[in-house]
Amino acid sequence: MCGPKDKAEPTGNEGRCHKDGNRSLVKDIFVTSKIQPTLPHITIPPSIGTPDNVSTTIVDTSALPHERATLNKEIKKSNVILLVYSDPYSYERVALFWMPHFRSLGVNVPVVLCANKSDQTSSTPTDQIVEDEILPLMSEFKEIDSCIRTSALQHHNINEVFFLCQKAVTDPIAPLFDSKDSSLKPACVSALQRIFYLCDRDQDGYLSDKEIHDFQIKCFGKPLSDLDLSNIKTSIQRHLPDSVTEKGITQSGFILLNKLFAEKGRHETIWLILRTFHYTDSLSLQSSFLSPKFDVPVNSSAELSPAGYRFFVDLFLLHDKDNDGGLSPSELSALFAPAPGGLPAQWQENDFPSCTVRNDANYVTLQGWLAQWSMTTFTSYRTTLAYLAYLGFDSSPSTPSSHTSTLKALTITKPRKRPSRPRRRRAPPVSRTVLQAFILGAPNS
Predict the structure, then answer these.
(1) Nearest-5° angle of CA 167, CA 169, CA 174?
(2) Burial track 316-352 (b if 16+ CB lie within 10 A, e otherwise)
(3) Is 425 helix (H, G, I), strand (E, B) or coil?
(4) pLDDT tens digits, residue range 303-349?
């Protein structure tokens, strides 16, 4: 689901346990009267506190054998399945029937597991129920996104269970976290490493307090109090003592912080961070961010704007750690770390840096660096746009992502005007900074 509407499918064994929850949600009280076998569809509008401004349709189903075709049809149409159990028999059916049945239908949607009628097991500690009932199921079936205990009679966690269903679709945990290994998945770690790189403005390997505050404003739109920052550092140090120093938080500490978010069920926080930096639900960068609409008219060309040149100058100076006026292979590797594949393919084909200006150590100089980007923009401006996105072109470290555009780094030259017939007059001045010349001659001449 990535559209404006979720479809939740409450499913359970024969009986009324999941219907109690539906009716309790709508009526806000426990309904003791007889309930029909299948309740009508319920739509929760975006105005009722739903995440990401989506509406949610709750589709009730029956587990009776003669309703199986209808049940299967609705399951295949759903975005998330709410699987409810309330006693030992219905609990056993989760692993023996329901989860294998979902797999046999070929559905690939998150499942929220709900233990209803918690009022009848109030004497049993929640931790014990989680340990004995829920964790074994979540370990065996990776489709189970989250779990919750509810009571329709006491109206306990009724609203929360449907919120979990919404969150399972809008902010899925599966792409981010491996619950079996209790670790963030490689694609998520890679994305967070790039985000750390972009937020580490001075490239010293630490997020300073100022860089963390800028990150907070950019992602969440509000400042971080000194107390909250201190608590964050304390939480990180509790697990990785060396990841917080006077300089700030290391990359390992930043990754750990997001792992703690996932473990505490706050994966919507990770998604907010990822989406701020233009990541999709598949943890790839948005195509509209890497390749925004930019048309170059006939007889015109694309060049770097002053903002684009300034960005690449700053990038060069930032990574020239030894201040020798050139970028060594290790410095180039660090600079291109956020870009998949490192150097642009076009540069590798032209044997960069041999194709541009270098110093005595064979390192590309600032002049050669800017010349390389000028030529790349002239011959393949889409490559430049993609690398501006990879490397973090931004007007301000705390600018909201919606206000960021790599197009500010490029400009379009005036079209060349060719007279219909030769005229003997002085040629107008050339405003272009990049010119293409063709050299003709015999080989080795």
Answers:
(1) 95
(2) beebbeeeeebbbeebbebbbebeeeebbeebeeeeb
(3) coil
(4) 999 999 999 999 999 999 999 999 999 999 999 999 998 999 999 99
Read off the pTM. Answer: 0.78
Per-residue pLDDT tens for 220-277? 999 999 999 999 999 999 999 999 999 999 999 999 999 999 988 888 999 999 999 9
**Which H helix or E strand runs over 164?**
helix 158-170
**Comparing C-alpha atoms, which of 139, 138, 145, 136 is closest to residue 109?**
145
Q: Are 87 and 143 in contact (CB under 8 A)?
A: no
Query: Angle 251-263/267-276 helices, nearest 10 degrees?
Result: 130
What are the backbone angles phi and psi of residue 65, rounded to the nearest 5°?
-55, -40
Residues 6+ apart with CB under 8 A from 432: 301, 303, 413
Quick one: three-class SS letters along 249-276? EEHHHHHHHHHHHHHCCCHHHHHHHHHH
C-alpha–C-alpha distance, residues 121 and 141, integer Å: 24
Token readout for 401 is 């992502």
Instruction: Check if the beta carbon of residue 340 is closer than 8 Å to that of residue 310.
Output: no
Q: For residue 373, what are its two tokens? A: 């980007």
Which of 393, 341, 332 shows the shortest CA–CA distance to 365?
A: 332
Tally of residues, the chain: 445
Tokens of 327: 């970028």
